[in-house]
Amino acid sequence: MQNTSFKRKRKPASSSSSPHFKKNFSKQRPSSGGRGKGVSKLNPNLLVKKAVETTTQEYISDRTINELPISVNLKRALTDKGFTRPTEIQDQTLESLLEKRDLLGIAQTGTGKTGAFLIPIIEHILAEQRRAFALVLVPTRELALQVQEEFESMSKGLHLYSSCFIGGTNINKDLQELRKPAHIVIATPGRLLDLVNRKALNLKTFNTLVLDEFDRMLDMGFEKDVMRIIDMMERRKHSLLFSATLDKSQERLINTILTDAVTVKVSTGDSTGDHIEQDIIRVGKDDNKFDMLCEMLIGQDFSKVLVFEETKHKVNRLCKQLVQQGIQADQIHGNKSQSARQNALKSFKAGKVSVLVATDVAARGIDVSDVTHVINYQMPMTFDSYIHRIGRTGRAGKQGRAFTFVV
Description:
The chain is α/β, with parallel strands linked by helices. The protein has helices at 72-81, 88-98, 113-128, 141-154, 171-177, 189-197, 214-217, 223-232, 251-257, 289-297, 312-324, 338-350, 383-390, and strands at 103-106, 134-137, 162-165, 184-187, 208-212, 238-243, 262-265, 276-282, 305-308, 329-332, 355-358, 373-376, 400-406.
């Protein structure tokens, strides 16, 4: 994308596109952002790291899709989808999941985690032909839609049906959807409990539970709702937990959910984005943070940028300010309708907008392979949140860069 994508209505204070330009703004008015309540206690030194060039050999399974211990029809569906060999997390978990062993799976985003749990679930459904078989809980609407899309593409032609229930949509449509029995339900916790409270959905009938991005699902924001849902799954016999990171403080809770579980770690679970160039931008008391951000964004290599803010209100304000400066930007946060969020994401993927301003809701569930930069306009509150944010860049073997403003 050409630099004109970031054309501003007024020239920046400096023509430099380097992020290290604090001195250029020493006489600018003070920024009003970044000094509010809820100040992050992260050590800024943890957010500075050179990218490590690795020579890790690409994992290639010694068996093809046609050699997996699954039904012929499922093999055909996966082959039609374009699968040739399982990924490492799929390869190492398949047999255990086919045996219905509880499982804790740790693997980086983009390594096939979704397929790792969907393939054995589809195989079980084909064998048992039972509706309301599996419940997949995810933290964000975008991730829920991605999981449903994967299920539909993997099970194409197999006459299997799914339902997806997420916030920000018309609940009356969900009630109508529930009249059609589904083999698998994918949902965010809040909307699922709403349907349960309306007595429109009975969780007793589900056999299998999947917590995707379980580290987020078991934190203080979701823990109560998730455990309530689990308690209502009286016939639950099979539980699968997948994520890219593992918070050791959650081990006790994990052990209450899983029984005699198999643990598969394709990554350590405490990755710090080794493949991503990470740096901080110091903002002095006389610097204007917004102008500093604008100058970064007009850099020619900043072609597809995720900018994170802490609150919905701040995301809305920052996005409007960027647009007023002639920067092609859109926004995504919890107060936006689902259609608005999807349209913003589609525009970002297609390159119609070059900057997507987001709250942490977008740190999970955004599958965009060519994000060039992640910018934390405010420091995230936790290191885990930081890791998931910067994990949106440097994907599919491409170099990624992450910058964090430090006031």
